[in-house]
Fold this protein.
Amino acid sequence: MFNQQRMTEHRDGDDLLTAGLGLAGLRAMLPPAFADAEHPTPAELRRRALWANWRGIADLAPGGGYAELYGSVASVPGREFSAFARVPGATQPHRVLLQLPDAFDAGKRCVVVTASSGSRGIYGAIAVAGAWGLPKGCAVAYTDKGAGTDYFDLDAGQGIAADGTVAAADADLAFKPAPASGSGIAYKHAHSQDNPEADWGRHVKQAAQFALQSLNEALPAQAPFTFANTRVIAVGISNGGGAVLRAAEDGDDWLDAVVAGEPNVLAEGHGARNLYDYTTEAALLMPCALPALGLPAMPGSDAKCAVLAANGVLSGSDLKAQQQDALAKLHASGWTDAALRAGSISVAFDLWRAIGVSYASAYGRYAHDAHPCGYRYSAVNPDATTRAATATERASWIADGSGIPPGAGAAIVDPQPMADLGLTGLQCLRALWAGDGADAQRVRKGIAETRAGLPRKGLPVVVIHGTDDGLVPQAFSSAPYVAMAQAANRDVRYWQVRNAQHFDAFLGFPQYGAVYLPLLPYVYAALDRVDAHLDGKGALPADAVIASVPRAGKPLAADNLAMPH
């Protein structure tokens, strides 16, 4: 089940949680440097990946409260065990990692298992699971759940090895596409042809199994470690939250509790919508709708509205009427004004299109050269013409990439000219959900494979979601999941946090930090409550709508969080 196994030690100026950077190092605006930009060492890549993933998940800005009011960046010495794992039937491996603190609590014997948020690499949940579990003496197991930052350079014929360094196509790589030829860039989430989301629950379980195997080898005096004698709590946010909910479906009695924050999960029931559906809708309509909410128009949105009206997507004889029609269509499909306002930042960052392009390939199991809307990925020049990636860009993908381009020198290449405004592609992406062609049927089949079932009877599950989430609106995800589970008498608790949106990391922007609260404090608090319950020292949290109070530019205080008692 596991190959390419490695062990590394992290002490004496290095550690498991921040690679020795501490809070000051994580707050630094520039990433940790490489001595040789074209050939960074595995240790340099790891340090930079930790820096990037902390900053991508947590609000570390002064006044935001991290490591002061909540959370930890304590120096935790220990060892890391890593490997490639493969679920049955998959063509590509997923990464698994166990962080074992030197101060592992032999009496408690706890493992926290997690999956990366978004499409991030193996450290993509360090600020979620690692920050809570490692300082408590728990081992923490991770999976990239078949996504991650193991990009493949088609021009150079090179990919990423187990230690994060660049290697030739004939090496044992974390991802090698089929075909491994052509031009541009391929990456695992989009181009594995495995539809990894369908197996997220299995990825999480394999990470837990790898944890037990590694503990048996690392701590033979305390062995055997089994699911029967080791506490296993699963936690994740966003896509990682969806992954741990999928793991909760497993009928074997291996999990002791689950905490899922802002999960991307497709349930049965009223209001449930899949990510691809509402993402492609948002990409097409949200730029036109936002001015009708009083938000500033994005560059080029007026022209896009006019083209969509000419194509029959929107109605209205003038710009204002077209904007109102776009807003009305989003309201009719379940979007709230709060979700739309928070979702505006995904318009600004072109995130809706990025998700749509990637997930169309993933769900349809398309090769890198066969996107149904003609998109591909490449390094580009300032004038948007394509070029081969440089050795420096290639060397840093594992650390700097987010798992979904654009970013880290990898760009989306639209087959249409810039004068098209990207609309032909966006309408094509939308048609893969709403249309009837063979490609649409293929994509919808992949989406159907990701639908969640009920958690195991008797398994404590806590779901936390911000009421203002604009990337994974709770009305489409958590709300129908909780309703489905509670109707079936499953032990699922639900915290709805007012004034919380999807991205804690964006709270460093003053305009965001003034009106929104972080979600991570509630994830940590839910983990505390669940852990105490398993110790027989407290009840599971009750359902709650948490009336948090925006900090309005002041430092975050406990009163702002209004944490349930």
